[in-house]
Amino acid sequence: MRRDSLLALLLLGLPAPALAAPPAPAKTMSAKPLPAPADLETETRAWHAERIARLSAEDGWLSLVALHWLEEGETRLGSAPSNALVLPATAPAQVGVLTRKGDTVSLTPQPGVPLTVEGKPFKGGALRTDASGSPDTVALGSLRFFIIRRGDRLGVRVKDSEAPTRKGFHGIPTYAPNAAWRVEGRFEPATTEKKIAVPNVLGEVEDMVSPGTVLFSVGGQEYRLSPVAEPGSNQFFFIFGDLTNRDETYGAGRFLYTDLPKDGKVVMDFNRAYNPPCAFTPFATCPLPPPQNKLKVRVEAGEKRFGDH
């Protein structure tokens, strides 16, 4: 499926095909709301405040204004419409030329354009991508841009601290903290290296390492989710969908992090389920829930749908 078509479906909040047919009533029941203990409500509110602060930071996801995939050869960038990569109007008409040669990208600045990298004047040269950690970030006024790698693709991601999406942000609606959605699951580790196929909004599928499966119960019904292991992380990362994606939460699913298992148990606090970056910008490259992580239950906890997405 073309990327623009897939994004259109996601931003309209349309459900994944696997959720199209309603399951049996016993499997669609939501967790009965339970009063949130004072500590759970306080912890949830504090966590969400930190989440909003990161999202709305000068270099947070709300500042993302462009994503351009690089072809072999030269790509001109600047605010003039004639550029292959058109930057916001605050940038000079011509900023420079990016040159891709295989897996490497270099930047030749336009004379007189005051670019910096890590706070130091940048006169040109190769740019480190995010493939092996933090990329080289080129700064120009309120703009920041850097090179990302996604599979065989190399792209330029542009952020602007003055972006309308950031300046006009007024928060994300959430469900009230609910003790019924802080559940303890049983972890079943994989006996051999396990990989699951995780699709993304680019129409690609990536095989990601999964340490096992977490089984948990809601309303007397058992469910299971497979986390993925991120390099260097001391947490489990869950990419999941549920029946609220149809009407109240982001149509392409949500994310959840948990602590690693302790004594074979994992605490799944769905009050901390949150929207992926694609809920806020079409320039993100989000993973989507794999088929086994599409829950046939309404997870009425965590973040709700943002704006018109």
Explain the overall architecture.
The protein has helices at 3-11, 25-28, 38-55, 164-167, and strands spanning 64-69, 73-78, 85-86, 96-101, 104-109, 116-117, 120-121, 125-127, 138-140, 143-150, 153-160, 182-199, 205-218, 221-225, 235-240, 254-259, 265-269. With 309 residues, it is mainly β. The protein has 2 domains: 3-56 and 172-293, no CATH class; 61-167, Tumour Suppressor Smad4 (Sandwich), CATH 2.60.200. The strands form 4 sheets. Strands 1-11-10-9-6-7 form a 6-stranded antiparallel β-sheet, with no helix packed on it. A 5-stranded mixed β-sheet has the order 3-2-4-5-8, with no helix packed on it. The radius of gyration is 21 Å and the shape is elongated.
